[in-house]
Specification:
There is one protein chain. The protein has about 250 residues and is α/β, with parallel strands linked by helices. About 50% of the residues lie in helices and about 15% in strands. The strands form 3 sheets. The protein has a 6-stranded mixed beta sheet with strand order 1-2-4-7-9-12, sandwiched between helices.
């Protein structure tokens, strides 16, 4: 259900492969969780998450829905998987060419950066079933597009096109070939100071859940930690000798 391919440029491509619609069944969610943990234990230079050409991921498998007991299991498992993906210590890029609805949209939201194709469509249509997003949609969406827009999208179930998603901040880029662009960006990052990237990503993510003063303290600690890396020595020495942008980092 999940395929992982590591390119020669250091990018791990995670492909959703659960039939035509990539439904996020409980088995699929478990496979995604395991893949995320694998990428955390042995991180590449960057991660690209992609799905089908027409459907990135259509959301949770509705046939598995039942009452509150099933709902409690499903939401816990989805949160566990998407939190694991979000915690991978590298930039995680979603390459979305088709529909990303419900859990599929929440999967894209759990990534750090979203590149949409011209025909991509995003939405949280759970309200049309009489329920609400259960995989982080109410929280991650609000942090990206603001609470008012998140409420409008979640309470109406309205879907948005790629250009609309870009305009409101749900998508970060729209590209003719989002997969190629995602690989390009991931390859560029894979050449960088990977430990510093991990520290920076964590400082941003942790800081968002804290008051500003605590977030600034988090940044200070990460800044100090960055100076204990081999890459910091390489980067500073390279800048002093050759100027910016010439360092050849090791990732350590």
């Amino acid at each position: 259900m999940i395929e992982i391919e590591r390119t020669s440029d250091g990018v791990a491509v995670v492909t959703l492969a659960n039939g035509k619609v990539n439904a996020l069944s409980r088995a699929m969610v478990a496979a995604l969780r395991d893949a995320a943990r694998q990428l955390t234990d042995d991180p590449p230079g960057a991660v690209v998450v992609t799905g089908g050409e027409r459907i990135f991921a259509a959301g949770a498998d509705i046939s598995e829905f039942g009452g509150p007991d099933e709902a409690e299991l499903i939401t816990a498992e989805i949160h566990e998987a998407l939190d694991a993906l979000s915690a991978v210590p590298r930039l995680v890029i979603a390459s979305v060419t088709g529909y990303a609805l419900g859990g599929g949209c929440e999967l894209a939201l759990a990534c750090d950066y979203r590149i949409a194709g011209a025909r991509a469509v995003f939405g949280q249509p759970e309200i049309l079933l009489g329920i609400i997003p259960g995989g982080g949609g109410t929280q991650r969406l609000a942090r990206l597009v603001g609470p008012s827009r998140a409420k409008e999208l979640c309470l109406t179930g309205r879907q948005v096109t790629a250009e609309q998603a870009l305009r409101i901040g749900l998508a970060d880029e729209v590209a003719d070939d989002p997969h190629a662009r995602a690989i390009e960006l991931g390859s560029e990052l894979a050449k960088g100071a990977l430990t510093a990237q991990a520290l920076c990503k964590r400082a941003i993510d942790v800081g968002l859940s804290l008051p500003l003063t605590d977030g600034l303290a988090t940044e200070q600690r990460a800044f100090v930690d960055a100076f204990s890396t081999e890459d910091s020595q390489i980067g500073v020495a390279s800048f002093l000798e050759h100027g910016p942008g010439k360092a050849q980092f090791t990732g350590h």
